[in-house]
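Ligand-bound model needed. 1-deoxynojirimycin.
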Amino acid sequence: GEYGHSPPVYPSPKITGTSEWETALNKAEHFVSSLTLDEKAWLVTGVPGPCIGNIGPVLRLNFTGLCLQDGPNAVRPSDYVSVFPSGITIASSWDRDLIYDRFHDLGLEYKGKGAQVALGPVGGALGRTPYGGRNWEGFSPDPYLTGVAMESGVRGLQDAGVQATIKHWLLYEQETQRSPTLYPNGTLEFSTYSSNADDRTIHELYMWPFANAIRAQASAAMCSYNRVNGSYACQNSKLLNGLLKEELGFQGYVMTDWSGLHSGVASAQAGTDMDQPGHIEPMTTLLNQTRLSSYFGGNITLAVRNGTLPESRLDDMIKRIMTPYYALRQDQDFPATDPAMAYYNTQFSSSNYSMDSLVFGEKSRDVRQDHGGRIRQHAAESTVMLKNTNGTLPLKAPTSIAIFGSDAAPNTQGLFIRGPSEIGTLAIGGGSGNGRFTYLVSPLEAIKARAVQDNTLVQFWLNNTVIKDANVESLWGATAPEACLVFLKSRASERLDRESLAVDQHGDTVVESVASKCSNTIVVTHSGGMTIMPWADHPNVTAILAAHYPGQESGHSIVDILYGAKSLSGKLPYTVPLNASSVNTAPTTNITTSGVDDWQSWYSEGLEIDYRYYHTHKIPVQYEFGFGLSYTNFSMASLRVKPTHPEARILSQPEALATRPGGNPALWDVLFEAEVTLQNTGSTSGATVAQLYISFPDEVSAPSLQLRGFEKTYLSPGESYTATFPLMRRDLSYWNVTQQTWLIPEGDFILRVGFSSLDLHDSVVLRPVE
Ligand code: NOJ
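Prediction:
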C-alpha cells in the first residue's frame, strides 16, 4: 500500500518558534490572521513566474512573494552569476571557514538577484553509492563531515540574508527511477524507487547532517522524489512529522521537490507545507497535466471548506513559510527579483503564463562582485594531491611541458555546457546544480599564461581518441618534455547515475599512452566524486591531483597548485578503492518483473558505506578516506582527552530536554575534549587536517572507525599547534532502536588521531559511562 512499512505519525507538529525567531513568529501569526482562505491556499502553492519556484504576492499586505532559485553551486537559472566550486570540492578542503565563506558569497548573489530562497545546501544524496549522479552537489558520504559542511553552508547563506533549503529529505541516493513511469494513458506503470533502510541507519547516517543544518536554523527543507520505506518522501508522516519536525525540532517549512507531490490532503497532513512548482489550478484528472495543476492550490481551499483539512494545519504551513522570511528581514529592503532570470527559466515554457507583468527594462543584474578571486583560492585549497613522487610537484621553471586531454581545453561550444562536450574542460556537473558561466578559465589557457614567466615551451594534444592510440613521442621531437600533464574528466549529472566509475572518454588509456613514453606524467582529474585510478601505481605516473569540480576559475586554481603558489591541503572526502568490484553499494537498476511497487532499493549494507565498509572488513584501498598529501610534512603526538565537566557523572541516556532545532539539546552538549599536538616538520609553510576517529566499545556493533572531529590548521616550518576536538554527546552515542533514543554504551571507546583514516598516529581509551 501507499504507506508501506513506514509507521504513521500524526498530527503534524506546529511551529513553536525559537528564541531567535520569536519576533518573526509573531509577525507571521499576525500575517496569517489577516489572510482569506483563498490567499492561504495561494501561499502554499507555487505559481509560474521568473524563478524556478515562485510564491505569489499578497500585495494588500505588502508581501511581494518569494523567488526560489537553484541551487547549491550558482544562482540558476540566471546569468551574470558566479559558478562556485561544487559541494564535494569544498568538502575536500575540510575547512569550515572556507565552506562558510563560499556559501556566504553565493548567498550575496541570491540576494543581489532578488531571490529570497536558495535551493541548497545538499546533504542528500549523502553519497551512499559512488555511482550516484548527484553526489558532487553534496559533500561526503561521511555524515560527520557533511554535517559540519551543512552547518557552515546554512549559516553562510542565511548570514547573507537568504533562506537556505536543505535537500533532499531523505534517502535520495540515486537518480535511476526517481520519477514514476506512466503508461501513455497517464496511469502508473512503476512508482519511484523506495529506499528501504533501518531506523538506526536512518539516524546515524542519513538524518545526521540534516540535524546540524536544522540546529543552524535552516529555513526550509525539500522532500525528495523517492519513497522511503514504501511511502513517498513528501507524504511520509514518519519522515516529516516524526523525524523532521518532532525529533529534530525543525521550525521551517517543507517544500516538495519539483512535481514530487502525489497527493493533497494526505501530504499536508503528513507534514508537507508547500507544493512546487505547484500552479494554483486544482489537480485535473489528466496526469500529464500535473505541471499546470496541483494537488494543493484550489484543492486546499476545497479541503478546508469540506472539513478534510483543518484550517489550523493550513495556518501552520503559512507560519512556517513566513517566519524565516521575517527572521531574515526579507520584508525590509530586499532587492526586487531580476526579471531577466525569467528568460532562462524553461520550467513554464509550455504553459500559457504571461510574463507581461514583469518589467523587462532592466538588463541582467551582475551580482558577481569580487567572488572570482575567492573561487580561485577556494578551489585551489580544495585540491587533493594523491601522489607526488620525488617532489615532481610543484613545477620548477620547466623548459618544456606537454599537455594532454580534452579536459585541458577551453570549451568550444559555448559556456553554458548542457550536454557532454567532446573537447572542453569540465568544471561543474549537470542539472539543477549547474550554473551559467560568464567565463571559465581552462587549464590550457591558464598554464600557457603562467608558462610565459619561465619561457617554457608548451605543446598540447586535446583529442582523447587520438592520444589513446598515438605515439606521443611524435609530438615533442628531439627533447622529451620535463613534465606531461594529463587532464581527465568524469561527468556527473542530475537524472543520470554514473554507468562506470572510470573517467570518461578513454581517459585511462590516455594515461597509459602518455605514461608509456613520458617518465614524468602528472594526472589531474576533474570529477564529481570517486573515480577508479588503475594507473595510480604506474612508475611513470609521478603525481596525481583530484580537483573535482572547481567552478569558473578552474585553470587558475590548478596553476596555483601545480606551481606551488598555494599551499596544498585538500583531503579526500571519500575512499578511492582499488577497483570497481570492491564497491559494495550500487544504484538499484534493471528491475525486470512488473508491478507498480517493484523498485525497491534495500540499504542492506546499513551503516557500512564508504570507509565504514572498507575499514571494518579490512579491504585494501588505493587511497583512503581523509588522505591527501601536502608540500610539507607534519608530525602528530600526545593525544589526550579530558571531561569538560570533571565533577559530573555521565549518564548513558541524554536528559530529556525540550526539543530545539537540531533535536534534544542534550545531544549537543560537549562532554569531553580531546587534544593533540601537531608540528610542521618540513621546510615550507602549509596546512593539514588533524582527524579524530572513534571506535565504539565491542558491546555495540558498529563500523570499526567513524570520524568524530577534524581541524584544519596552517603552520609555518617548525611551528607547533594544539588541535582541539570537542566531543558532543551525539558523537559518542548510537541510536538505540528499541529505546528510540541515542545512548552512550558502557565500555571502552578508542579514540584515534591521524592525517587520514589509515595514517593514525596516536590513540587513547575512553570510558565515558560506567
Ligand atoms: C529537481 C531537483 O531534484 C531539485 O534539487 C531542484 O531544486 C528542483 N528540480 C528545481 O530545479
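The first helix runs from residue 22 to 33.
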